Amino acid sequence: MNSILVPRETRPGETRVPMLPESVRKLAGLGARLRVETGIGRSLYIEDAEYAEAGAEVVTDLAAAMAEADLVLRLNKPAGPEGLRPGSLHLSFLDPFVDLENVRRFAAAGVSAVSMEMIPRSTIAQKMDALSSQASLAGYSAVIAACARLQRSLPMMMTPAGTLAPCRVFVIGAGVAGLQAIATAKRLGARVEAFDTRPVVEEQVQSLGAKFLKIDLGETGQTAGGYAKELSDAQLEIQREAMGKAVARANIVITTAKLFGRPAPRLLTAAQVAAMRPGSVVVDMATAGGGNVEGSRPDEDRVVGGVTIIGDTNLEGRVPYDASQMYGSNLANFVEHFWNKADRVFELRRDDEILAGALITHAGEVVHPLIKEKVG
Ligand code: NAD
Predict the structure, then answer these.
(1) Tell me, what's the pLDDT at 329?
(2) CATH superfamily name and code, 3-118+338-368
């Protein structure tokens, strides 16, 4: 397997591209036959010529290139496996817990599908961890998006005309996105508070100069993979109650709590949003998974009782150059990990732990145990 194709992204409204020329250069340097679809970098004003200069062949006939490609590298989930060669490998976000029909179709087409969201969160796989690379930028963008809607400035300002008090930002869920949101809000001069159900996070929050809200929820903990465990309804009720004051005094609330493979927990009720000062802003970073905030909607900004609720599912797409750079690098690092440098070919090593975690379909079957269970 030596021929790699990177098609142009087609999802409406997508600002990111799957790969920048710098990652193309890296893959071409491995000895891969690399092709990109014409127009691949258009949303970032990157010309075809820059991809060609980095070592890619620019193709206009996508169908012909797909039929020949051993590996197809994409960003967003494709509509299906149509046009891919049986035995080829496809890498992209795949939403495999939700879009089971697509998973079935990839299996039936005999295409091996790697889901970028399933790359294990291990030290060795860090450089391929697209969830983390995109989440960091999304956390940054959440603060910037909130500031753009807030009617106030974040830092304290002492001027001859008077003193402006610093704004308060409350971040709920201090994982990859949340920590970056905290760091960004601190840099902008806000007073930041944060909460997470994983107690290990307290120190990380404090090291960024933010205050950790302590709530006794009893046993919470995290999974072996570092993810939060689902709270009981009673625990969630205690959490919402205890967060009430922090929410009410915040100018900006950013919620980032996801539960991998399950619907997001409901952290803010409509009544809590109503209790916020008009002019405040809530960013719900979990709208794609059902939302943390009652009343939020995917990809909508809503104003409810004077409070703006931002539900953008592609916050990382607000900094598309950096997001594309990181995502393309994640893809290239994945390919490099499985590259046989002597023979200059990609090797699908089924015993590799990263592949075992992220390979969803192979040789006509759904092979990932968790997804297989769901597909039935
Ligand atoms: P995520 O996007 O699934 O969730 C975001 C945060 O929400 C998490 O910190 C989670 O604990 C928190 N959360 C869940 N339910 C909550 C609730 N009811 N109230 C408040 N917070 C809640 O998680 P993520 O950011 O992708 O990753 C979480 C953690 O996984 C990281 O902080 C890290 O420890 C681990 N991780 C490890 C690696 C690695 O080792 N390579 C890479 C990425 C992440």
Answers:
(1) 98
(2) NAD(P)-binding Rossmann-like Domain (3.40.50.720)
Q: What is the pTM of this model?
A: 0.94
Which positions of the chain have pLDDT values less than 50?
none
Per-residue pLDDT tens for 322-332?
A: 999 999 999 99
Distance 375 CA to ligand 1 centre (A): 26
pLDDT value for 227:
76
Name the residue with tokens 């953008």. Answer: 312
Do the Cβ atoms of 329 and 116 come closer than 8 Å?
no
Is residue 301 flagged as an active site residue?
Answer: no
Specify whether 45 is catalytic. Answer: no
The per-residue pLDDT for 114 is 98
What is the pairing mode between strands 3-6 and 33-37?
A: parallel
Domain boundaries, the chain: 3-118+338-368, 136-318
Same topology between domain 3-118+338-368 and domain 136-318: yes
Task: Say which of 88, 92, 112, 132 is annotated catalytic.
Answer: 132
Tokens linked to 246: 């922090």
Instruction: Find out whether the beta carbon of 138 lies less than 6 Å from any atom of ligand 1.
Output: no
Give the span between the Cα atoms of 376 and 372, in whole angstroms.
Answer: 6
DSSP lists the bridge partners of residue 225 as none
Give a three-class secondary structure readout of 17-37.
CCCCHHHHHHHHHCCCEEEEE
Looking at residue 144, its pLDDT comes to 98
Q: Given ligand 1 and candidates 220, 255, 258, 293, which is best to mutate, with the most ligand atoms within 8 Å of its CB? A: 258
Report strand pairing: 359-362 vs 157-159: unpaired
Residue minimizing CA distance to atom 30 of ligand 1: 226
Assess whether 351 carries a catalytic annotation.
no
| CATH class, range 136-318 | alpha beta
Tell me if residue 204 is catalytic: no
Among 198, 259, 262, 272, residue to substitute to test ligand 1 (most atoms within 8 Å of Cβ): 198
252 ligand 1 Cβ < 6 A: no
Residues contacting 24, CB < 8 A, separation 6+: 6, 34, 36, 51, 54, 55, 56, 328
Which position has the token pair 């970098």? 41
Could you confirm whether 134 is annotated as catalytic? no
